[in-house]
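Dear colleague,

Following up on yesterday's call, I've attached the two folding results inline so they're easy to grep. Please treat them as preliminary; we haven't cross-checked anything against experimental data yet. The first protein's sequence and structure tokens come first.
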Amino acid sequence: DKDDVKLRSLEEEVNAECQEIGVVEKITVFSNHPAGVLIVKFEKPNAASDAVNRFNGKARRDGRKVEASYWDGVTDYTCRNAEKEEKETEKRLDEFGDWLENQELPDEFKLKVEE
């Protein structure tokens, strides 16, 4: 998918730039967030400080400016499509119910009726 390639490219670009500052432990890209949020976790706190100072206000190739700040560890940047998730959950549950109904039970689990 074209969007996946773009996101992977962005992640690689950010990783390369951040590795110049310090050891990057993890990059989390919030692909559905309209503001293009990503979080970079560094091995050492001083590298995070250096990254905020280096990237905050920096212009990207697409003309947008980077807003770099410290993540509070609490804010959830995940954007969800509740309607889509509900439909997917309903579909999964229906498929699971169909699967359950089509299972052949072993004799020891079958209902026995005495006559």
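Below is the second protein, in the same order (sequence, then structure):
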Amino acid sequence: NINFKFQFLGALEIFTREALEHYFEKSGECAGKVGHQGGEDYYMEACMDGIGIDHQTDFKLLNDKYAATGNCNDPWVVGFHFYKKVSSWNECHDAAVNSAKNSNMDYVKLEE
């Protein structure tokens, strides 16, 4: 989900129903073999790889300020990670929304 560290940060983890069903059937195989040194995101990536779940990569989905992606103006971003101040998160989100509105991409505002 991001081109940083092991390329799978916990702020955005997307799985298909089938992948999770397979995980719940086989997760016991991971418990004793996969370490937890990287947190839940590292564990899930290592476990899913270990039980044969394939994955797709899209490095533009997540804006992570620690990864210095700096892509608040990218209309493709769907998640904004680790802004401790609401105002900082809102600024980044608003920039992305404005970029989406001004791009050739279809923009649909979800109902609140």
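For the second protein, one point worth flagging: DSSP finds four helices and two strands in the chain.

Best wishes,
A.L.
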